[in-house]
Amino acid sequence: MFTIETHSTGSLEESYQALNAQLAALLSGERDFICNASQFSAFVMQTVTDLNWSGFYFARGEELVLGPYVGKVACTRIPFGRGVCGKAALTLQTQRIEDVHAFDGHIACDAASASEVVIPVVVGGQLMAVFDMDSPKVGRFSDVDQAGLESFVATFIEATDFSWSI
Ligand code: SME
């Protein structure tokens, strides 16, 4: 499996497209939410460079509860509206934070984290989870990265059965 960095023959958009095809193949044949969320977290950590945390928080009532992830241990519950994850849950909008230290209310699980992207996982209009990525580099995520990572989440949603999870 190549990474965003090693797949340098084309543009960053093309790298994300190629990786998204690999992701679809990886998740094909399995629809379990926990299983696919675990594989997805590891796939992102393995293929997207300069990350120190990749994982899910599941929506449970009015708070987020830690789900499958790769990285250092993290806080277990985040109320909607708190931190970057809570803002993504409340607004249902992707949050891309250039410098987490400049974000009022950022929850620091790993002191090494410097930038962050959180993408809401919305199925049939309902928030199921948020997918969170941290980087030790300020400004790690460009708008191209955001679009590529959102396409990964769309593939995850397409591949997964959420019906039992709420
Ligand atoms: N930084 C997040 C908390 C989760 S950890 O990064 C894994 C936030 O501010 O919501």
From TrEMBL:
Family: Belongs to the free Met sulfoxide reductase family.
Superkingdom of the source species: Bacteria
A Pfam entry, by short name: GAF_2
GAF domain residues: 40-155
A molecular function GO annotation: L-methionine-(R)-S-oxide reductase activity
GO cellular component, one term: cytosol
Name of protein: GAF domain-containing protein
Organism the protein comes from: Marinomonas polaris DSM 16579
